[in-house]
Design goal:
It is a single chain. With about 200 residues, the chain is α/β, with parallel strands linked by helices. The chain contains six helices and nine strands; from the N terminus they run E-H-E-H-E-H-E-H-E-H-E-E-H-E-E. The protein folds into two domains: about 100 residues, Rossmann fold (3-Layer(aba) Sandwich), CATH 3.40.50; about 100 residues, Rossmann fold, CATH 3.40.50. The strands form two sheets. The protein has a seven-stranded mixed beta sheet, with helices on both faces. It has a two-stranded antiparallel ribbon with strand order 8-9. Helix 2 links the parallel strand 2 and strand 3. Helix 1 packs parallel to helix 6. It starts with a strand and ends with a strand. The structure holds 5-O-phosphono-beta-D-ribofuranosylamine. 5-O-phosphono-beta-D-ribofuranosylamine binds next to helix 1, strand 5 and helix 6.
Length: about 200
């Protein structure tokens, strides 16, 4: 059975969506570790309540990104993690980490990539005046929010939307497509071919 390692920095609602999908059998995997770079991340307590092992690795305790990434990688290996899911993890992971977990490292982003990568994607969408936005689950490569796309879901942007209302509409879709993408991966139904992620078999 696959073992997920979920990296968070805050609220952890996507982590909970993944953990609940595992507990309910919608993802054939267990969550082996929820790891945060922020000691007070609310998601840690939620993971603890679900009986999931948690760990804090404060990035400020390391002098370099590589040193921090190395500690994170080591912890994931110790927990026998086979798929790493970034879920609101607010630290960039360096090329060494990305290489070590290539094809086994996913992220969720609150826009229809390649539009609006980086921070505050929902605000960027509103400021740009787009009429449709959404969520993207993708494999992580060495460029920010630019890896091969697994699943996307679109939502309308309403004229009276605020960052909060748009974020809430997108989040609902995040909680739907992230478990779906992880389930496809652990069932070995995803094939990365260059930029394409093919979904195989039924
Ligand atoms: C989500 O919007 C996710 O797409 C982005 O950061 C946010 C994390 O929210 N990467 P949560 O911590 O999962 O509730």
């Amino acid at each position: 059975m696959s073992t997920l390692g979920i990296l968070i920095s805050g609220r952890g609602s996507n982590m909970m969506a993944l953990a609940d999908a595992c507990a309910e059998g919608r993802i054939r995997a267990r969550v082996g570790l929820v790891l945060s770079n922020v000691a007070g991340a609310p998601g840690l307590a939620e993971a603890g309540r679900r009986g999931i092992e948690t760990l804090v690795i404060d990035h400020r305790a390391s002098r370099t990104r590589d040193e921090h990434d190395g500690k994170v990688a080591q912890a994931l290996r110790e927990s026998r993690v086979t798929l790493v899911c970034l879920a609101g993890y607010m630290r960039l992971l360096g090329p060494g980490f990305v290489k070590a977990f290539e094809g086994r490292l996913m992220n969720i982003h609150p826009s229809l990539l390649p539009a609006f990568p980086g921070l505050d994607a929902q605000r960027q969408a509103l400021e740009h005046g787009v009429k449709v936005s959404g969520a993207t689950v993708h494999y992580v490569n060495e460029s920010l929010d630019a890896g091969p796309i697994i699943l996307q879901a679109a939502v309308p942007v309403e004229p009276d939307d605020t960052e909060e209302t748009l974020s809430a509409r997108i989040l609902e879709q995040e909680h739907r497509i992230y478990p779906e993408a992880v389930s496809l991966h652990v069932d070995n139904r995803l094939r990365i071919e260059g930029r394409q992620v093919r979904v195989t078999g039924r």
